Amino acid sequence: MGKILVTGATGFTGTALCRRLINDGHEVVAFIRPTSKTGALTELGVICKTVDICDAEAVLDNFTDISKVYHIAAAYRTEHSTTETFIKVNVEATRNLLEAAKQNSIERFIHCSTVGVQGEIDDPPADEEYRMKPGDHYQESKKDGELLARKYFAEEGVTGTVFRPVGIYGPGDTRFLKLFRSIARGVFVMIGSGSVLYHMTYIDDLVEGIVLCGTHPNAPGEVFTLGGENYTTLKELVGEVARVLGKQPPILRIPYLPVFWASIICDKVCKLAHISPPIYPRRVEFFSLDRAFSIEKARRLLGYAPKVSLHEGLSRTADWYRENNLI
Q: Which domains does the chain possess?
């Protein structure tokens, strides 16, 4: 067997996936940027190659002896990033990798999309067939990248699978640190009713699902949503975080609409001033949009079965934050 290529290997999900693949006995190659910190990957035994995935020729030149690709890399949301940046990384770089995979007749290509391609969920929980309705430039570019991958799988002879992760968290990730920190300090304020739905996925369960996408005979040609066992209301999630931190659940609440309109004004003013806004619509919308999904297709076709409960996952995450003096 050839080497397994992982893009986005220095990120939270990519590093966890590399660790799993190495532990399973595979030889793993990572395409990294010149500025990437590779200490953790090198320690695992990952072969790190400086390759710009936006450069089609560089990708093809470095595709030697690759049998499988896990394409995790993406340009993620940063406020005021250009549409061109999202397209360059999330669409064109994906095309470069797919084309190299095609020319080298690799065993399987596993593409990481996002549930964000479906936008706000009007009738939760959403399954894989639920309509696509991206809500911003990032989600739009991820939709285009996913559709491109599916086109290569259907028409260009590349064997592959798409997965859409939901609300990734766990030790080592800091995406939810602000939530934990504000609850730990007793300053969390709920914007709106807290009745919207939110879905979390513990990193170990996600990696298990990704590996199933790359190995299970039922996976090729399919799209899978990979999420945790259950979803909750935002109020329930906040209450669970408070419990694992040994705090009383927050009770302060403010109306949604005034905060949302203030975020729009703040965002526009900061754009004119060329500074990053302290509050912006996308962050406020976290409190108003339903994010709940069905994982039944992955259960049925792949045998996907999340093992880490929300309470256990949040406890492990809180312990890691404490051990690293983050809360």
A: 3-168+200-229+294-307 (3.40.50.720)
